[in-house]
Amino acid sequence: LPNALAGPPLLGRAAKDLAMTQPAASRLLAELEARFGRPLFDRGRHGVRALPAAARVLRFARMVCAEEQLVRRALGSEGERPAPLRVGTLPTVPPVVIEAVQQCKRERPTGDIRMHQGTLDALLPLLQDGELDLVVARYDPLLAQPPLAYRRLLDEPLSVMAGKTHPLARRREVSAEQLRHCAWVAPIRTSSLYPHFAELFQGLPLPEDVIECASPLAVRQLLYDGRRLGLLGKSALSASPGEGVVRLGVVLRSSPGPIGLYTVKGRMVPAESALFQAALAEAVAARQKE
């Protein structure tokens, strides 16, 4: 049913997807509308068009299917190899996620862990549809909407960084004018970090020499030769202390959201997901003591 509703608004194609006749599909739609007490589809001369209420039913159906998959995974793993844990993260993977993964593997070496990277707007629909067990990413008030639940883990402030040989590396204060005349490694334009990069220049024209990059590791490597500036989070810096980059005396006018855990409210929590969440909490607590 979810796949049929999500497809083109033609009853014939929906019936084909469900391997049933068109009259049978029409009766099924009528039964759905009777069950929910309102029309879900507009039947016109040119076919069937889904109404806004149908989108709500579709979201509910996907959640039910996701719950069924979780139960199947739990039953299938009894006495057998546990089902894989599926973790969604942004391309800038927080070190606490790596630490939690390592802890899970120490406690359960045979448990498979699959890490999916992507943008938050791509990861959260996968979480709702049951394709991911959880997502660790920055908070976005526009995307953290029901049925999603968000739990803050730790703050992740950004700093302007440079290689130790960069001309601005030893200055106590750096102006927006000086920043815009430098070469940069900037966040990709579609990321939630890009507006914080743009605000550094206080309305001035943006730098002309820019490399867009989503990987903190690549950003650090591009800064080593002292030719470019970049934005890095606190945890990305602590992951490689003593390397050839320094923090500039630049105060960011805005701060990105904290790193947190996205789950689905009321959804069954598989054992492997509970183990990972506990390891994640331990990793966060250890970092806060540093």
Structure write-up:
This protein is α/β, with parallel strands linked by helices and 290 residues long. Helices cover 40% and strands 20% of the residues. It is built from eleven helices and twelve strands. Helix 5 (95-107) links the parallel strand 3 (85-89) and strand 4. Helix 2 (11-17) packs across helix 3 (22-36) and helix 5 (95-107) crosses helix 11 (271-289). It starts with a helix and ends with a helix. The relative contact order is 0.16.
Overview in brief:
The chain is α/β, with parallel strands linked by helices. It is 40% helix and 20% strand. The chain has helices at residues 2-6, 11-17, 22-36, 52-76, 95-107, 120-128, 176-180, 194-199, 216-223, 234-238, 271-289; strands at 41-44, 47-50, 85-89, 113-117, 134-138, 148-154, 158-163, 183-186, 210-212, 228-233, 245-247, 259-264.
